[in-house]
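User: Predict the structure for this protein chain, please.
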Amino acid sequence: MNSRERVLGAFNRTGFDRIPVKHEGTPEVNKMIMDHFGLTNMEQLLQLVGDDFRYVEPIYIGKELRHFPDGSIEGYWGEHYKYTEFEGGRYLESCYLPFANITSVEELDKSQFPTAAWFDYSTIKEQCQKISEQGFAICYGTAGDMDFINSIARARGTEQVLIDLITDDPVYLEIMDARFQFYYDMHECVLKAAEGLIDFTHIGEDLGTQTSQVIDFDIFDRHFAPKFKKYFEMVHSYGAKTMMHMCGCVRAFLPRLIELGLDVYDVVQPTTPEMDIAVLQNDFGKGIFYCGSICVQSTLAFGSVDDVVKEVERRKQLFSQGGLFLGPSHAIQVGTPLENIIAMYKTAGSLSEVNDSILSIETEKNDDEVNMSKLF
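Assistant: Here is the predicted structure, written as structure tokens:
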């Protein structure tokens, strides 16, 4: 059974040989794994841990995204990003917010907003065909696509965005509409170019805090639900399934998202009792599929190898008939013990032996390059 057969067997609950796996780690964690096993690129790592998914990407042909003397780089919406260093790693953080002081729609320079025409989709089908020949499930998109709260905040400010949502601020709504149309059009262009070969599309929206929801239901239904419904229907019309990354405690939104057409809830942060994976499975049954759920804030980072093994075995039993793509509850973070990561994939049954076949894999891309399509 190849990866795609395994993924679809688990999704459709028609049988699979092992639980499907989806890996995510910070660059520092990925390098730690690669150094330990003597690997040189991400494709080798993905094959080592048994990741069953591969992504296609269009080619960026839009305006030049500038680099500035302070080391920052420009995003699609005119915002700037700069690396923030911390012990053991670094993250890109927004350092210039072009929409922060905009108080009227007339002040917005919409001529600079990105469009789907900023990308070349001519290689998408070829990418899909190559991945299909390799036997992997095919995905397109990232957790940063759509992402109306978190990503707009990077160009306007988090506090202002939350106020905007409460007050129905016209400036925010104009940016939100433009962001939705940009990603809706991009995803449709990719799906058209793929000619039915894409299995899942991927978007994101951080609707939860550590213990509750970020916004009220009426705000969600007013501003988010119509957009998600339109997007989910479009994706389904091309024969693909929808996957949505959501951090935090988002349980309250799941019934509505299921109703709107979401297929896969990605990452599943099991840090409160109501977010426990067994509770979610019991309460929502086959209404939605899960991805992730091995906690990067507790079990993986601070638990023992035995703790990790126990949590993985529990999920294998809970989802023996399908319903879960196993992986971390977010990117595995710096400081996570390597032995815990190895234990997760070994217990899942996906960890491969390092062999000449894996070591011979070469990639054309520099794995350390900043990938604009995934960050902005």
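Residues 170-194 form the longest helix (25 residues).
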